[in-house]
Amino acid sequence: MDIQKLSINTIRTLAMDAVQKANSGHPGAPMGLAPLGFFLFHEVMNFNPKDPGWINRDRFVLSGGHGSMLLYSLLHLSGFGLSIDDIKNFRQWESLTPGHPERGHTAGVEATTGPLGQGVANAVGMALAYEFMAKKFNKPDFEIFDHFIYAICGDGDLMEGISHEAASFAGNQKLKRLVLFYDDNGISIDGKTSIAFTDETEKRFLSYGWNVYNIYDVNDLERLRMTLHETRSSDRPCLVVTKTNIGYGSPNKQDTAKAHGSPLGEKEIEITKQNLGWDYTEPFTVPDEVKTHFAAAIEDKLKVYLSWNGLFEQYKSAYPEEAKLLAQIMSGEVPGEFPIDESYFPDLAEKLASRASSQKVINTLDDNYPTLIGGSADLTESNLTDFKNLPSFRSSTERAGIFIMVSVNMEWVP
Ligand SMILES: Cc1ncc(C[n+]2csc(CCOP(=O)(O)OP(=O)(O)O)c2C)c(N)n1
Ligand SMILES: [Mg+2]
User: pTM of the full predicted structure?
Assistant: First the structure.
């Protein structure tokens, strides 16, 4: 078996084995999506597992958090510090591998997901943050921020309203660094999606102003490669509708809702492994060739990381002010004192609407909180949350703006 297939099957078998041992969980999505996960983590994404907070890493969001074993298998294979024992402890109390991924709990998890649709919105937020930070800190010859946001969503994510609101925003704002893969497996918990979900997803996303691509078989790595290459020159967010088979390889459960959210069962796992051409009888086996294959990829990623560090050292000398500000922002420190004092409200007897006093306060914040981003839900004139004399964040014109407007023709209302 070629090394790519063996690596992909390792992801599948880890997912099957972990769900079986925990006696709960969702094997089907990880088994279907294994080629895509492998492609992204092994071949595409830049990161350093020893420095998971590196500011220029590519981001990955698994919006359907129930498929967490996909992510945990990939984090294990990529050296993020999840051991095989952590994988064996899947879904156990206080383990690093909870049923749904939790940011801040497991290194390499970028977003806490589980409530469907939400991860899509998280990814849109990350794509917005990319534009903002790139505009604020990149300089000629210094692409300090130069990364992509990859996300995977499933049928359930697209049934939820939040994913569509976020997608509409991303299209309007032309958040071109976002590549969202839709796990189009035609199955959710109740059975075939034709029962309840018959949207024309491609048309829906086209109407939001996205570019849409198709992968007719997720196992076709060459097609994945070519499609990803195409997304690179996109001037807008990209949806890649990717056909997969839930529970791929399972003779009796593939393409059925039975593979969604329960263990396959010992017998079914045995015949699935046979069907996949898996030669190992011990559960949780990671073949040595696969370890070596991932280690080599991580070596290459490390070169990119080190070269970025070299660039950033030069940036520090060329742009010391910006570098200082960036370090401050990333540390989470507040750059200055909270600037409000009584001088802002000299006449306490004055009758001032609370939104008007709020406006005064908000308009002192941008100096000291340079990454504060806010907005109003198409109510700028009413709730007075915009920033006087500062541009709003707009697609393609003003990426460093800090106020997000729903309609862009508003005048400042004193
Ligand atoms: C907002 C929300 N509603 C319902 C659920 C419960 N739920 C978890 S997975 C799922 C079905 C997901 O179907 P799909 O995204 O197609 O995943 P697949 O079966 O293909 O793995 C549902 C309804 C949830 N997690 N979040
Ligand atoms: Mg599905």
Answer: 0.94
Q: What pLDDT score was predicted for residue 400?
A: 62
**pLDDT of 167 above 70:** yes
20 alpha carbon – ligand 1 mean position (Å): 20
Output the average pLDDT for the chain. 92
Ligand nearest to the CA of 99: 1
Distance from residue 277's CA to the centre of ligand 2 (Å): 25
Q: Please tell me the distance between residue 156's alpha carbon and the centre of ligand 1 in angstroms.
A: 5
pLDDT at 218: 98
Residue of 66, 152, 164, 195 to mutate, ligand 1, most atoms within 8 A of C-beta = 66
Secondary structure string (H, E, C) spanning the chain: CCHHHHHHHHHHHHHHHHHHHHCCCCCHHHHHHHHHHHHHHHHHCCCCCCCCCCCCCCEEEECCHHHHHHHHHHHHHCCCCCCHHHHHCCCCCCCCCCCCCCCCCCCCCCCCCCCCCHHHHHHHHHHHHHHHHHHHHCECCECCCCCCEEEEECHHHHHCHHHHHHHHHHHHCCCCCEEEEEEECCEECCEEHHHCCCCCHHHHHHHHCCEEEEECCCCCHHHHHHHHHHHCCCCCCEEEEEECCCCCCCCCCCCCHHHCCCCCCHHHHHHHHHHHCCCCCCCCCCCHHHHHHHHHHHHHHHHHHHHHHHHHHHHHHHCHHHHHHHHHHHHCCCCCCCCCCHHHCCCCCCCCCHHHHHHHHHCCHHHHCCCCCEECCCCHHHHCCCCCCCCEECCCCCCCCCEECCCCCCCCCC
- Please give the domain boundaries of the chain with CATH numbers for all domains: 3-304 (3.40.50.970), 342-404 (no CATH)
